[in-house]
Amino acid sequence: MSETLAARIKNNLTRRRLIIGGAGLAAVSAAALARPRDHSGPRDGYFLNLQSALIGAGITTPTLVVDKARLNANIDTLMAALPAGMGYRIVTKSLPSPGLIEHVRQRSGTHRLMTFNLPMLKSLMTRMPDTDQLLGKPLPVAAAATCFDGSDAAPDGAAQRVQWLIDTPARLAQYGELAASRDVVLRINIELDVGLHRGGFVAGETLRTALETLRDNPNLRFAGFMGYEPHIPALPKAFGLRDRARASAWQAYNEALEIAATVFDADAMAAITRNAAGSPTYRLYHDTHIANEVSVGSALVKPTDFDTELLAPHQPAAFIATPVLKTAAGVRIPGIEFAGPAMRLWDPNRAETVFIYGGHWLAHPVDPPGLAFNETFGRSSNQEMLNAGTGLDIAPDDFVFFRPSQSEAVFLQFGDIAVYDGGAITDRWSVFAASA
Q: If you classify domain 116-291 with CATH, what class do you get?
């Protein structure tokens, strides 16, 4: 072998070692970067104070807590954001507690409610007979009829103060027959499809005919429109998709208003409800050209599903508090106990285990920091397992805190709401019976 060939082979081997060594170093570096970091740490003073308040109140079971000061701040944020002349309607399904609704009414000064099911509608007719209730979804006419019949019929006149939502000509005809058979006048609100495509009228001859029916039927009265557009913030800003959806929604609503103005006189049009928005979109309305009221509920307690750019000024005001039942070092999964040390070696957030009272809620742990569900062990509504790193500082009888991802179902799972104010639990608000 010549010296030249030997040198070439040596150089190739050296380069190969460098390449292999570099690849190995890159793999190790990538693995190090992929390895989770420890998210545990000291507890938040806010939650330690809330824990002390719960213990002081003798609360020992999973409980839904509403922070009254934060709730008030959210109400004030909402009202300050509304343009002049814009009304506010409380979304009752998102705040499903008579005491909570009444507090929001008093703080905001509104008498308008949006209600979504028959049991809640009837309950509020009795509890708050002075309110104006707009249905947030159409009810089967047979359900509406029960408000006039039987032992649980609504108080006299209450059903006539409801705005019954109508989405089709067929349903409008049914409600016309109901009103005639009971010799009452029903207020009818027309659902508009402004881009969500979940039903409702669009501008055109079908809508015009429906409005003419309302004008000509002595048992029906046109109360207004409702156009819901939660799809707008769900669309990306890229390529102008969100802006186009907003412009399209407002154009669809405006075209419906223009048709209505050819059927009803100016005085009638000035009196109608022009309802729009929800928590995700209410801050898009800077004037009353399209809508003269917005519906908001969830933004006042801000579950995690409402952690959006538009709702950044709002604060989380509702938490699930549940006691710790058991704690343990490490993680032991039945049948694969041997894997525990390897799990901990790879993921430092598997250093400690807690089992809580209850679990499997639509919620995310927020305190102590770093707690996470163990998907290998599985979820449990009896004793949920959570894991965290070595910085976890918690013991049995302490509380773990969660933020609900939504409010309408979660609020109904814990009995009376604990009202937290001034460092103490100062009140309990009952919730509605679970209903669909």
A: alpha beta
